[in-house]
Structure formats: structure tokens, C-alpha cells
Amino acid sequence: MPPRSISKVFKSIPTIEGAGVHLKRAFGYHQLPLFDPFLMLDDFHTANPDEYLAGFPWHPHRGIETITYILEGRVEHGDSMGNSGVIGAGDVQWMTAGSGIIHQEMPKLSPSGTMWGFQFWANLPASQKMIAPRYRDVPAAIIPEVTLENGVTIKVIAGKVAGVQGPVQDILADPELLDVRLPPGAVFEHAVTDGYTVVAYLLHGQGYFDQGRDPYAYDYAGTGWLDLERDCSFGPETTILYEHQGEGIRVTAGDQGVRFLLLVGKPLGEPIAWQGPIVMNSREELRIAFEEYHNGTFVK
Fold this sequence. Notes:
Blueprint: E1 6-11, E2 13-17, E3 21-27, E4 38-46, E5 56-61, E6 64-72, E7 74-79, E8 84-87, E9 92-96, E10 101-108, E11 115-123, E12 134-138, E13 145-147, E14 153-158, E15 160-161, E16 164-165, E17 176-182, E18 187-191, E19 197-208, E20 219-221, E21 233-234, E22 238-242, E23 248-265, E24 273-275, E25 278-280, H1 283-295
Parallel strand pairs: 1-20
Antiparallel strand pairs: 1-22, 2-3, 3-4, 4-11, 5-10, 6-9, 6-11, 7-8, 7-10, 9-12, 13-14, 14-17, 15-16, 17-23, 18-23, 19-21, 19-22, 19-23, 24-25
GO molecular function, one term: metal ion binding
Protein name: Pirin
Domain Pirin C-terminal: 178-298
């Protein structure tokens, strides 16, 4: 079967969240349900401490999983289950909010001044939205890195590459989360499950993500009304959503090489009711969640 084609391409949008954190939103609420089971991806990358130190003070979550991956800097966290600690460069925090958790994520001053990390939200199916919360720190030291014969390197956070299994397992969305680096001109081919959602988010360099290399074969969201240029290669802060049909993808690096995050998951195909940090299946479930939060019965 030929590699998957690109369905849509998005440019990240600057926004401010939490208590004043400047970030780029790769995709989110307005793209529902294109990325099912994934709800949101935020890229926080700045060398200005004033743009990240305010952080994300105490707030609730229900009905989702939040995944934080740090490339540079440190983030201190705490939650209503009594978990606390600091994650740094290369570390991952994977939290299943389930029936309800209250937590905070507070970036600390980086030695270099630069903070760079990502947070994904993954939806939970209706049958699992009220499961007990679960939290896990995944230190960089236990995340395996696979090097292929052509020099491609892959950090395997979740999923499997070349027989190497990532440390995050038993997740409901059956996800893959890979940090992939290609040297100039290298090709990366990766099998994916037919029907699963496949997303690439570019961090560095430039590459070709569609075998046909036709810049008019997909929708390109976020371009201006006078943007008369289209290209078939992509650079940083670009989100690529693949078609759902096909059992593999093929990426070819440009002259600078390319680095990207690859996210794969099983779609839920369920209704979504989303307000702020809570994602349920109906407006009534949202009402109950917010009532419980305000009357002190949110955490079970």
C-alpha cells in the first residue's frame, strides 16, 4: 500500500494561556473533530522568562489525558493526589485526569533562559471518562532512542520502532509518540494502523511529508488572503494531518535535515462537549463537572 497522503496543513497560532504563558497553538478547539482522539497541542518556546514564569496555577481536569514533553527548561508540578516534582529536558509527564484531578504546572527559570516544551491533550472514551486519575513521570533516562542505518534517530516515548517499545504503555488511545530526527536527505518510513489519526508537528529544519510532493493536493489552513505561494516542503511550527487511509507514512528530509514529533492514535468517534480544562460527552456532564468543582466534590 502506498504511503498516506496529507489531508490538511496548519500553521501554529500565537496565544496566551494559564496565568500569562505565551505559546503557539498547533491545533485545538476550532479543529474538532479532525484530530480525534487528540484535542490540542501547544508549543511553548521562548527565551523570555516573562513569557513563561507565570505558569499554569491550580486548575481542574476531567475526561482527558494531558501529556507534557520538555526539550529545554524545567517545570514544577503538583496535584490533588499528592504527586509533586520537577520535569526537565527530555522528560515526559503523562497524566490521566479521569474522574477529576486538580493540579498546577509552574515553569522555573531555565539556566539558559529558554523554555521549550509541548503539551498534548488526548480525549478519553465515554466508558473511561470517570476512571480513577493516574499520574506518571517518565524521565529521559528511560526513554529509548533508536538509530536506523541511514542515521535517522527516534526517541520512542509511546509505541514501538524497530522492535523497541517506549516506556508509556497501556494507554486508552493506543498512542504512538515519537521524537524523530532525519539528517539531510534521509528518508523515514513508518508503519501506522489503517484508520488511526496520524499527525506530524515540525520542530526544526525542513522536509517533504507527502510522496507526491504536490502543494495543491491538500488544504492549507491559516494562510493570508494575499498568500500566493505554496510549497510541498514544510518547516517549523507546522502541523501536518494525514489522511486516515493507509498503513504507513514516508518523510524525506531537506538540505537542513528535519525534526518532528509524530503522534498516532485511535479515533473515538464520540460526541465532544468541551469547556476550558474539562472535556465530556454532553453539556449535562459539563454542568455536573463544574457544579462539583465549585461545591468541593470534584475530586473523587
